[in-house]
Design goal:
Blueprint: E1 7-11, H1 16-27, E2 32-37, E3 52-55, H2 61-68, E4 73-76, H3 84-89, H4 91-95, H5 97-110, E5 115-121, H6 152-170, E6 173-179, E7 182-183, H7 196-210, E8 214-218, E9 224-226, E10 228-229, H8 230-242, E11 249-251, E12 256-258, H9 259-270, E13 275-279, H10 294-300, H11 308-328
Parallel strand pairs: 1-2, 1-4, 2-3, 4-5, 5-6, 6-11, 7-10, 8-13
Antiparallel strand pairs: 9-12
Helix pairs in contact: 1-8, 2-5, 5-6, 7-9, 7-11, 9-11
Length: 329
């Protein structure tokens, strides 16, 4: 199914990934775009001209029917989530996103939507396979036997199963991508919901401009992760949506780094070296996680490939502007 000429709704459009996706869909010449988010429109990270922007709480079933009325395709990115600090301390809130996914699937089925894209997460993977920083890249089948991240991961895994069964039982074409640590400009960088790349950028900028050349790192710094730049994420979403991939698939970079190495990259952007203070009691997530990209390369002949240092440079520059401009007023 091609995007061009289709009527689409992006749920979670006021968020980081959703805002970028709306702009990209405009460039792809979708015939009509409806953008939906629970936040008031003036609080959206990005707003696009020529788009029907709606502030709706999609936990409410009626609002899901409003969102899907007259559309050919759904991009369901709406969720209550954030970085590890938020996920570990708000498990019930994360679980409640299952209402959004359930009601959106029901509305899409009932209103004749042709295709439904669901944004899942690498948090669905079995925790026993992520105990070692020298992690073996996670294959899609490693989600079972199930032992996902408590709260958020269980919600994502359950919703993946709903997508599968709505396709099997009702013929609703579903596409599911498991995101691995997406970062970039126009995302959350403070307030407690930010993820590691944005948090590290903010902390380095604060240290640089305050003269207090120290940084607080959650955990021992040896945890390993891969981080995917937003441009790769959007390209992957659109390719998976248009393709014939009827199973959940990894969407993430395979460039594995430690948190200490992530700090190295950000320090290089700032041209500074900081004293590192490790908070061993802080939320740090699993010890190791990386994306096995065998399947996405088989299906699409492509994988996310923007280097961490290149994506971080753009992200750092954007966050620094956000932090310094208010101070200059």
């Amino acid at each position: 199914m091609k995007i061009e000429g289709k009527r689409v709704v992006v749920c979670g459009a006021g968020g980081f990934i959703g805002g970028h996706l709306v702009k990209s869909l405009q460039a792809r010449s979708a015939s009509k775009i409806r953008a939906v988010d629970v936040k008031p429109i003036e609080e959206w990270y990005q707003k696009a001209d020529g788009v029907e922007n709606l502030s709706l709480d999609l936990q409410d079933k009626h609002n899901c029917y409003l969102a899907t009325e007259g559309v050919d395709a759904v991009f369901q990115l709406a969720a209550d989530m954030g970085g590890m600090g938020f996920i570990e301390n708000n498990r019930a809130l994360c679980m409640l996103s299952v209402l959004v996914n359930t009601h959106m699937l029901m509305a899409a089925r009932d209103q004749g939507v042709e295709r439904f894209f669901y944004s899942s997460s690498a948090c669905v993977y079995n925790g026993d396979k992520q105990k070692n920083p020298d992690v073996v890249p996670l294959k899609e089948q490693d989600a079972y036997p199930a032992l996902p991240e408590d709260g958020y991961g269980w919600e994502k895994l359950f919703s993946e199963r709903m997508c599968r069964h709505f396709e099997e039982d009702f013929g609703l074409q579903c596409r599911v991508a498991r995101f691995h640590n997406v970062y970039g400009p126009y995302g959350t960088w403070n307030g407690g919901r930010e993820k590691a790349p944005a948090a590290i950028c903010r902390k380095v900028i604060e240290a640089k401009h305050s003269g207090n050349h120290q940084i607080e790192i959650w955990g021992d710094g040896h945890q390993t992760r891969s981080f995917m730049y937003i441009d790769d994420c959007i390209k992957g979403i659109e390719a998976i949506f248009q393709g014939e991939i009827h199973e959940p698939i990894n969407l993430g970079s395979s460039e594995l780094v430690t948190i200490n190495q992530l700090v190295d990259v950000v320090e290089e952007c700032a041209n500074i070296r900081l004293k590192r203070n490790y908070m061993l009691s802080a939320p740090k997530g699993v010890n190791g996680r990386n994306s096995d990209n065998t399947k996405i390369k088989e299906y699409l002949g492509w994988e996310p490939a923007i280097r961490l240092k290149d994506g971080i440079a753009k992200t750092y520059e954007w966050i620094e502007r956000q932090m310094l401009v208010p101070a200059a007023k």
